[in-house]
Amino acid sequence: MKKFDNKRNVIGSLIKEHRETKHYTKAKLSSQLELLGIELDRFELYKIETAKTSVKDFELIGLCIVLDIDFSELKEIVENYS
Length: 82
Prior knowledge:
Layout: H1 12-21, H2 26-35, H3 42-49, H4 57-67, H5 71-81
């Protein structure tokens, strides 16, 4: 599997930060994503937050919607790696 800076994603810490700010457990986040038709269980969310797995585009969009992440925050992450 492809990696960048020895990580499979670069947004895991952002996801975790926003999840904790909203006081969501991984189970709560999972259930909110399910309402959007996105199936990510607690273990998959753990792997995303710890950069052990990649994130599909539709999963990222769902995570941003549920966690109120502004897409400019994603752009900032990309710019920091440039």
